[in-house]
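### Sample
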Amino acid sequence: MSGGDKLDFEIRPNPQPVSAAERAALMANPGFGRIFTDHMVTIRYADGKGWYDARVEARAPIPMDPASAVLHYAQEIFEGLKAYHAADGGVTMFRPDANARRFNASAERMSMAPLPEQVFLDTLHQIIEIDREWVPTSDDSSLYLRPFMFASEVFLGVRPAQEYLYVLIASPVGSYFSGGIKPVALWVSQEYTRAAPGGTGAAKCGGNYAASLAAQAEAIEHGCDQVIFLDAVQRKYVDELGGMNVFFVYDDGTLATPPLSGTILPGITRESVITLARAAGQTVEERPVSIEEWRADAESGRLREVFACGTAAVITPIGTVRTPDGEFVMGDAGPGEVTMSLRQRLVDIQRGRATDPYGWVHRVL
Ligand SMILES: *Cc1c(COP(=O)(O)O)cnc(C)c1O
């Protein structure tokens, strides 16, 4: 019984927005996820009532009862996408409809109320409109949008909550790679897995991230930047990184990426890369890739490049893979040509510098 596809937002502008001078100082070097805009969007849900009380208001702490269900049983999901400053002074977003659909797919897996896709899109428009001064204008920056939803019902019984709070916040972000794009080193987690068949691997839920932190800490201990997970059943096939999908590029020009088997998050960047590669005549296979195969092909030179992809970093070259048995290196361990060319094509569409034959770019302002 969710509400209609159209909600009226009550707009209460922040009475004390950050001054233009202070905003400029904050945005000079925003980093990732450190600074936030003046506003947030919130919508409440209750069983029998649907979605109600949609607001655009000053970003502020959310009062929470200690018995709120999310604090105990982790019914929480989120999304991440970016808004870009367009050449003509406007603002665009990249494939927000795909995020809206995935948000509801995650909600369904976590037994949460679905949010009408149009309402999800409306919230993105609302925050961009009111916080448009926070959309960075520089070429390698963007406004990161973080919609999320959690069980707000005050109840300790174990069952799907009957009340939810949807929140949207926004954060100006700089280039993910300060000082140029350099390949990362991955640690192959031996002890931990990210997702098992039948689990929540395909849902964008906070719990998946909580469970990945120990493995990420292990990666850092081994001198690596990121962790890569193997499948939970055979501990053999490559799943993905903690928050990025992975692609392999072979010497005959073909690409491979693990299939969406339910244990992998269906990345929108992943899907966009597949589309762009195929449009350029490249073969992309969605198939399981084992860690032994990865090592053998890297050592024989058949495997030329490997990269990870996701909204935050777009496309990240992978240079080294480390396991307890030693490490192996991709190609010449530098960013590969195919990787960088795909990255360029994708970023050019996202930033309106190339034509967009797929209807991916969504105009906001
Ligand atoms: C969000 C996410 C990705 C990347 O998805 P995009 O839609 O490309 O940003 C990949 N893996 C995990 C686990 C994620 O949470």
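The helical segments are 20-28, 70-73, 96-109, 117-130, 206-221, 268-279, 291-300, 337-350. This sample (Branched-chain-amino-acid aminotransferase) is used throughout the tutorial notebook.
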